[in-house]
Amino acid sequence: MKKFWGFLLVIVLMTSCGEYQSLLKSNDYNLVYKKAIEYYNKGDYQRAMNLLDGVRSVFVGQAKAQNIAYYRAFCSYNMKDYQIASDLFKQFIQTYPESSFAEECLYMMGFCDYKASPKPRLDQQVTEKAIREFQLYLSRYPYSMRKDKVNTYMDEMRDKLSYKAYLSAKNYYLREHYKAAVISLQNCLKDYPGSKYREEIMYMLFVSKYQMAVNSVEDKKVERYNNAREEYYYFADEYPNSRYAADVKKMYEDIEAYLENYKFED
């Protein structure tokens, strides 16, 4: 019995393969289109894509052209070729801006790039692109049922960007490149004021300014100690009960002791 079912499976596969090869060479374009959709509905996205590619130029300017563009984009999406899919959804919107599929395709354009977004330590151009695309989607469809979902995706990606910026700044800090750390940490606070790493970023910023003062040439020490003291006030005001409080207070006392010698009389 097992041999019978195995033999039957081979026959089915051979028949399917033969049909597909014939379709690739067929001039019956309507049949090729019909079979491409059938392959798509069966989950055979690669064959569907190949068949649609073969007839899409034939149906330019006809009603089927829109469906072909739509299915080609979803073939790429279902095959997890997310960046190609995003480009195909974009092409669809540009070609058929008034289509009933336009909203879905604009959403999918952003969603594909969201899916293609890499791990935080890697280049995040695709992540930034996905955020822009989702922002465009919400600006065009502010009352969309997908609104909450899109906002969740954008928050997730902003957190990823925030984390990457935090890692980059922390790398300077750990390597004791304090000048570069100060610039990078300040950019983190400017670009991602709501970052969940804000407390640590502000702590590292204070320490970096303090270390710049300690290791500075004499004629710049007063200015840099004052800068560090100002940073301490920002930190202490925002995080009075910080886990870094004891460490920060000790450095602040050192700053005050140094500046005590440079008080000027009125």
Automatic annotation (TrEMBL):
The keyword Signal applies. It comes from the Bacteria. The gene is bamD. InterPro entries: BamD (IPR017689), BamD-like (IPR039565), TPR-like_helical_dom_sf (IPR011990). Keywords: Cell outer membrane, Membrane, Signal. This is Outer membrane protein assembly factor BamD. It comes from Odoribacter splanchnicus. It holds the Pfam family YfiO. PROSITE patterns: PROKAR_LIPOPROTEIN. Residues 30-199 form the Outer membrane lipoprotein BamD-like domain.
